[in-house]
Please model this.
Amino acid sequence: MHVIVVGCGRVGRELAMALDRDGHSVSVIDKDRNAFHELSEGFGGKAILGFGFDRQHLEQAGIHEAQAVAAVTNGDNSNILTARIARMTYEVPHVVARIYDPRRAVIYRQLGIPTVAAVAWTTDQVLRRLFPEKSVAEWTDASGTVSLLERSLPDAWAGRKLSELDEGARFRLVALTRGGQARLYGPELVGQEGDILHLIVRKDAQADLEARMSAGPEAGR
Model:
């Protein structure tokens, strides 16, 4: 996957280097040439001097081939403008923007742009939003037997009863987050696009859960 990271501060550097280590193609854009000096010597990505909201600079960074863009500069307006251009002009499927003013988050979510407030910003949270199809362990018991996983609801499950994802002793849906609001699971809940699921899963059943979610509800029939 080709990913563009806009902003080469601490979070941007960590994100770019993590993506590079995982084998992704990475371009980093920053207006300060000196910011690139902090990238590790083994970084194999591309550094672009410029601005994330400048289409020429985005195209130098490979926006036409990008599957993900993370706007992580220290300016809300720059990040949101970059994110909107990436999503609406270039139709990049996975876009996330860093914001310092959490009051703006609802507005940006309505535009289809996931955000993370600066006070809660971590590289891990960016990766969750860039790769929503991956489960992330929120907690694991001391024996390593059971984990609480966070997972975005696959599109194929939208409109289906979430009780179909409950297999009792092996994995169980316990809660979901919808529109920024958490709610406990009930058998009447129907999945909606954008839902974040929270599931308790046995270690030996995690692969089966992923296969079930990826295959879609019809596969279980």
Summary: The chain has two domains: 2-130, 136-220. The longest strand covers residues 171-178. The CA atoms of residues 17 and 43 lie 6 Å apart. The longest helix spans residues 76-89.
